[in-house]
Write a structure and sequence with these properties.
This protein has a 22-stranded antiparallel β-barrel. The chain is built from 7 helices and 44 strands. It is mainly β.
């Protein structure tokens, strides 16, 4: 039994120990805050500068969006104490701050009330790379690592098309949005609005392989089309090269990650009307705000209706798009965002034309760019998609963070189209009819745990997770030959047609994939090391084949090293792998192995201190092995394709209001092994050289303040028109342009109103975008002009 005196002594001793421990902790934290660090923060909006400071100095900065909105900070660089850097960023403002260890809270005189955490913005949390960028230069991305990582610290090629670039250039498809991105041939199938067809580093890429917020969004083998709407995106991230460690089954060329618009806690109200040639009409809206005073609940509602004639006659495309989103942020450590999407599009694919009359001159001349080879009495296409999911993140403490992305999507598709088959003589061609109808669904889930910790002087960002995809679709397809011939130089439509059935199929297909992955990003002094591995189990079941079920297992690895020089240079080297299951059997009945990819990359990234710019150069050697070929109707996997090259990209804000982006690609792609006699050839529609340059300037003052002028040029080198390399398609160069004006600069009553005029292929260059055979050529996009009126309030 203890005495009261002993109890009082024990209490006093415990209080002394606690006070000493608290003093030591405070001293240590103040010493850490006072320890100089090397910083490189360009002149930019204050919110972006605070994000850079938080990441470079290891601070967590808490502030209200209203406190920093509309404020631009100076640039700082060099070695200094974090608190000194913070003071320099806040110079000239009325913002004050409080420091508690590595936590910094900002307060502004616009609102003298105490800050409530639910209305704050937390800098440096795991997925800040989904936030909108101010300008063209993105400094962070998640596609390369699945974590919020500076691009300069990522040992792989990553490009980002920001929201401002999308708004300036006004692309109508994801492919069009990537026209100024290195390594991407974005319009190889011409001006299609119902689908995205492109290549990355010489390998086919399309809608079925794209990611939405880091997860699959479409059934890769589903026969319908689904072209995502750029107006609903915050940014587009492109990871070039093999990437199965993060995303499982994928093509070796790379990954495209589409980042959805998210709810905002600041008032966002935008209405837009647009019109152009080819009877183009569009109405769109984008609304967002907090739903309560504290900002615990917020929303985003984006919608669009578009109708336009295609370049080819007798095709009208319509699109309805609606995307609601709502976020719940009960604290600075937890966020749950529900994302919905509905899209319906009708119209048709502009089917290809013969090389004779496009690439080569026919005795009767060249075919017009509006030549239509189908028949509107039979052609139709409807694609409908509905999806609902959520993005969840919870930070337990300074070390552990849990994230989970879940999405369920439902698809419906119905189409009938008529296309050319082959020459009949006398200038006419045979045709065929392809009819498809189906529906499908896809469930995806990616659960991740991230740990940020130190072992000695080494800082770790450890990511482990499991993702799961499960899809099913039913498809009916019928192919019919058409008995009557067709002359594209003298087309006749609406005549009775005789259909001769060739093949019919009806099947159900189920696909599933489960992957477990582990990745460590380790920073030691100026070194950044990345090491990752993944194991996948894939299943593909189709009820019209024997055997019906095919199962594959595969391990994929990646590794990379970056060295960060103090002057902003960051050389790196990396290795990565990919795999893609292929369903079917060889001539002896054995199961086909997955196609695999291996890539070696050497590069240099440069982020000059004190500037808002990023420059990159990458040298790569990428090989696709086990490529599937069909010889005499039987599958063989002796094929191999090698892609090597150099890519350069630069994005910079030269001075305030003047943005410049440029790229160059040299890509040597060769079939190195083949049983089809194509060894040594280049795959069709793959250019060896590509280059682009875009710049725009917003007048900052004077009588023309608010006027924006922009222009760009895109060069795509010559390509082969078939796998035999029997003919070439000429190179082309097209020019794009932009002019816009903020009417509020002219008249205060028009504040928030902006008018713009965009032109693609300004000088109406006539060119062939690409061919895949002598019957598979497609004209490039003719001059298109869009006038836009946007009102923001």
């Amino acid at each position: 039994m203890t005495t009261p005196e002993l109890d009082r002594s024990t209490i006093r001793l415990r209080r002394c120990i606690a006070a000493a421990a608290l003093g030591i902790a405070l001293s240590a934290s103040m010493q850490a805050l006072a320890e100089p660090v090397r910083l490189s923060i360009p002149e930019q909006p204050l919110s972006s500068a605070l994000s850079d400071l938080g990441n470079q100095a290891g601070l967590q900065i808490i502030y209200s969006q209203d406190t920093v909105s509309g404020i631009r900070s100076r640039g700082i660089s060099g070695e200094m104490e974090p608190e000194q850097a913070l003071r320099r960023l806040l110079e000239g403002t009325s913002i004050t701050y409080q420091i508690d260890g590595s936590h910094v809270t900002l307060q502004g005189t616009r609102d003298d009330s105490a800050m409530a955490l639910p209305t704050t913005s937390i800098v440096s949390q795991a997925y800040s790379s989904v936030a909108p960028d101010d300008g063209y230069v993105a400094k962070r991305a998640s596609a390369g690592t699945k974590t919020d990582t500076p691009i300069v610290e990522t040992p792989y090629s990553v490009s980002v098309v920001t929201r401002q670039q999308i708004e300036a250039q006004q692309p109508k498809t994801v492919a069009q949005a990537l026209r100024y991105t290195p390594g991407v041939n974005a319009e190889l199938a011409g001006p299609q609005f119902v689908t995205d067809q492109l290549t990355i580093r010489g390998f086919q890429q399309g809608t079925g392989r794209m990611l939405r917020d880091g997860t699959r969004t479409f059934l890769p083998e589903f026969l319908g089309w689904d072209a995502p709407e750029p107006y609903g995106l915050e940014r587009i991230e492109v990871l070039r090269g093999a990437s199965s460690v993060l995303y499982g089954a994928s093509d070796p060329g790379g990954q495209i990650n589409l980042v959805s618009k998210r709810p905002t806690t600041e008032a966002l109200h935008e209405v837009q009307l647009q019109a152009g040639n080819l009877d183009y009409r569009q109405g769109a809206f984008d609304l967002g705000d907090k739903l309560d005073e504290e900002g615990v609940w917020s929303y985003r509602l984006t919608g669009l209706f578009r109708e336009a004639d295609a370049q080819a006659d007798h095709i009208t495309n319509r699109r309805q798009y609606f995307a609601p989103a709502i976020s719940y942020r009960p604290s600075d450590d937890t966020e749950l965002t529900f994302l919905g999407e509905y899209q319906k599009q009708t119209g048709n694919f502009a089917n290809p034309l013969p090389a004779l009359g496009t690439v080569f001159r026919d005795p009767r001349g060249r075919l017009d760019r509006d030549t239509y080879v189908g028949d509107s009495a039979f052609d139709h296409m409807t694609n409908e998609k509905t999806s609902l999911g959520y993005v969840f993140e919870h930070r337990f403490d300074e070390i552990w963070t849990l994230r989970q992305n879940v999405r369920y999507s439902d698809y419906r598709q119905s189409s009938s189209e008529i296309a050319l088959f082959g020459p009949l003589g006398n200038g006419s061609y045979s045709r065929y009819n392809d009819q498809r109808e189906g529906d499908g669904r896809l469930f995806t889930m990616d659960t991740q745990v991230q740990a940020n910790f130190f072992t000695g002087d080494a800082e770790h960002t450890l990511l482990t997770g499991v993702d799961y995809n499960n899809g099913k679709f039913d498809q009916d397809q019928a192919l019919n030959f058409i008995l009557e011939g067709f002359d594209p130089f003298n087309p006749v439509y609406g005549q009775p047609l005789t259909f001769i059935p060739f093949s019919r199929s009806s099947y159900e297909q189920k696909l599933s994939q489960t992957g477990v992955y582990l990745q460590d990003q380790l920073k030691l002094d100026n070194w950044v090391f990345l090491l990752g591995g993944r194991y996948d189990w894939a299943s593909n079941q189709k009820d019209d084949r024997s055997p019906q079920t095919q199962k594959d297992e595969k391990f994929s690895g990646r590794a990379g090293i970056v060295y960060l020089f103090d002057n902003g240079l960051a050389p790196y080297v990396s290795y990565s792998e990919s795999f893609l299951p292929v369903m079917g059997t060889t001539v002896d009945g054995s199961q086909l192995d997955p196609e695999t990819g291996k890539q070696y990359e050497l590069g240099l990234k440069y982020e000059p201190p004190g500037t808002n710019s990023l420059y990159t150069i990458a040298l790569f050697d990428l090989t696709k092995q086990n490529a599937t070929e069909f010889v005499s109707g039987f599958a063989r996997q002796e094929g191999e394709v090698r892609s090597r090259g150099v890519e350069l990209e630069g994005k910079a804000e030269i001075v305030q209001g003047f943005n410049l982006i440029g790229s160059y690609t040299w890509n040597d792609v060769e079939v190195t092994e083949s049983d089809l006699g194509t060894e040594g050839n280049t795959p069709f529609r793959v250019p060896e050289h590509m280059a682009s340059l875009w710049g725009d300037y917003i007048v900052q003052g004077g009588a023309l303040a608010g006027l924006r002028i922009g222009a760009g040029a895109r060069y795509v080198g010559s390509t082969y028109g078939d796998s035999a390399n029997s003919f070439k398609v000429d190179s082309y160069t097209v020019v794009d342009a932009l002019v816009s004006y903020e009417l509020g600069k002219l008249d205060a009553s028009l504040d928030g109103v902006e008018v713009a005029l965009n032109a693609s292929n300004l000088f109406d260059e006539e060119y062939v975008a690409g061919c895949f055979s002598n019957m598979g050529c497609q004209w490039g996009q003719q001059r298109t002009v869009y006038g836009t009126v946007t009102y923001n309030w």
